Amino acid sequence: MRTALASAEWTDGRETVGAQGAKVKHNRQLPDASPLRRQLGQTVLAALTKHPLYHAATLPLRTLPPRFNRYEGGGEYGFHVDGAVMALDGAGAQIRSDVSCTLFLSEPHEYDGGELIVSDTYGEHEVKLPAGDLIVYPSSSLHRVAPVTRGARIASFFWVQSLIRDDSRRRLLFELDGSIQALTATGADTTAVLQLTGIYHNLLRQWAET
Ligand SMILES: O=C(O)CCC(=O)C(=O)O
Ligand SMILES: [Fe+2]
Description:
The protein is α+β, with helices and mostly antiparallel strands. It is built from 6 helices and 15 strands. Helices cover 32% and strands 33% of the residues. Strands 1, 3, 4, 5, 9, 10, 13 and 15 form an 8-stranded antiparallel β-sheet that branches. Strands 2-6-14-11-12 form a 5-stranded antiparallel β-sheet. Residues 69, 77, 82, 102, 116, 143, 145, 155, 157 line the site of 2-oxoglutaric acid. 2-oxoglutaric acid is lined by residues 69, 77, 82, 102, 116, 143, 145, 155, 157.
């Protein structure tokens, strides 16, 4: 993916953003209609289907085809909130953004700056991960990408409509899932684990929107 993206043609990132974001967005992206975007996006989605932790955290219902962006020469994306409802295709289908995803494709030593900074009720969290690592964060959060002052930061980014709209419910289910996995791995009482698994699925059944 890095090799293909190194010789790609990039376009102004403001092409896919509303008026609020356009004022603070200074990066470039693969054009939405680019075959490379489609091809690499499918590679990203295929990798996600094989990742239990990603599924546990996002509980995906619909996923926007991944896009690819590039920041360099002081490029940044100032504080913004992602649009709540986005076009899924050209046929009028829409997706509600519940979870935002950034897949880092550049190694941290290849550029200065470029931290993804997510602001929540506990303050600001800075994220800068090795190539191949992905961060998921609530689309309801304010976030920004710090200016890239050396090198280039290339990433894939996309949005997920979750079965669970509410961030706090999604978090509870994620933590419950993690506890069940840990209990199973350490050989806990199977009847108790089965009961907890039932509680997980019955909460999911009560809260899931499809
Ligand atoms: O480049 C990133 O990590 C995030 C991009 C972003 O926030 C957006 O496109 O809305
Ligand atoms: Fe964003």
